[in-house]
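Reply to dn_fold:

You asked what the input looked like. This is it:
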Amino acid sequence: MPNSAILLIHCPDRKGIVAGISSFLYDRGANILHADQHQDNDLGLFFMRVEWDLADFALDDAGFRADFQPLADRFQMEWRLAYSAARPAAAIFVSQHQHCLLDMLYRHAIGELRCRIPLIVGNHATARELAGFYGIPFHYVPVDKANKAQAEQTQLALLEQHGIELVVLARYMQVLSPAFVARYPQRIVNVHHSFLPAFSGARPTRRPITGVSS
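and this is what came back:
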């Protein structure tokens, strides 16, 4: 795998965005590996992910940020830069069912998920044995209506203690509070079997077919 950089952007949709980014990268020696884009016509927004090989790229991180900012300002871009060599610290949240967690841990073990997993957090204790098999600390934090706010404070303290950069909800059957989400903006991934938001709950696949929730 080449050492690469990944640029994520979103901004108001208008002509010239792709040409501007492509020219910027080409002029600095980038070999583009992947480029994906999407327009949201209802909101008038443009989204793009572009990845390029760093082998012949002329800019380091600081140089890129300084040179790219005028182009970002021109198109009113919100943007984020990441590198494939980086290993972000990810926490996995899980409830009773472990199939999503199991798949993630296996992919991590074979090197397919390029991250560090310092801890797994469960609102049930059922995943403790699986976490132990993979050598990852497991933290049991029960959650109910009465203690939800306190439980989230405990969870957030664990995330801060371990320097977590990304939170993955692996079929975590709790709705995070707005305060929790605000602590990790655009850094929470929900891996869920549901057809959200239309069909939520534990058995959502039955509802479009049968019209019942359980």
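The chain has seven helices and nine strands.
Hope that clears it up.
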